[in-house]
């Protein structure tokens, strides 16, 4: 997984197919919002602190999950307001 801090409130994580295999995940686990997929997404947010110094402030996080051509994912998450998230994307 590769993390990129876009700003203080926003991080993007690129997850490869190999990363997902390591965790025993499929795209269906993520997009069907099952327990395994949701746990993985929570772990990504927690790991962002160690990887790029991301700190959660506020009560909610907006997340965009985009499938990539190589069967990986780009996960962008922020705790900015919805209008701020649209500007970033």
What is the element layout, followed by pairings?
Elements: E1 2-7, E2 10-15, H1 17-22, H2 27-31, H3 35-52, E3 62-67, E4 73-78, H4 82-88
Antiparallel strand pairs: 1-2, 2-4, 3-4
Task: Determine the structural class based on helices, strands and strand pairing.
Answer: alpha+beta
How do the SSEs run, as a string of H and E?
Answer: EEHHHEEH
Number of strands: 4
**Shape assignment:** globular
Main β-sheet, in a few words? 4 strands, antiparallel
Query: Poorly predicted ranges (pLDDT <50, ≥5 residues)?
Result: none
Molecular structure report:
With 89 residues, the chain is of the alpha+beta class. 40% of the residues lie in helices and 27% in strands. A 4-stranded antiparallel beta sheet has the order 1-2-4-3, with helices on both faces. A hairpin with a 5-residue loop joins β3 and β4. The longest helix is centred in the middle third of the chain and has 18 residues, at 35-52. The chain starts with a strand and ends with a helix. The mean pLDDT is 87.
Name some characteristics of this structure.
single chain; 89 residues; alpha+beta; four-stranded antiparallel β-sheet; 4 helices; 27% strand
In short:
With 89 residues, this protein is of the alpha+beta class. The chain is built from four helices and four strands, in the order ββαααββα. The protein has a four-stranded antiparallel sheet, with helices on both faces.
């Amino acid at each position: 997984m590769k993390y990129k801090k876009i700003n203080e409130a926003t991080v993007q994580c690129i997850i490869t197919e190999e990363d997902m295999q390591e965790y025993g995940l499929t795209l269906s686990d993520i997009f069907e919002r099952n327990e395994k997929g949701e746990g993985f997404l929570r772990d990504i947010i927690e790991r962002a602190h160690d990887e790029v110094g991301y700190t959660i402030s506020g009560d909610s996080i907006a997340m965009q999950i985009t499938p990539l051509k190589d069967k990986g994912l780009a996960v962008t998450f922020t705790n900015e307001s919805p209008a701020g998230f649209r500007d970033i994307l």
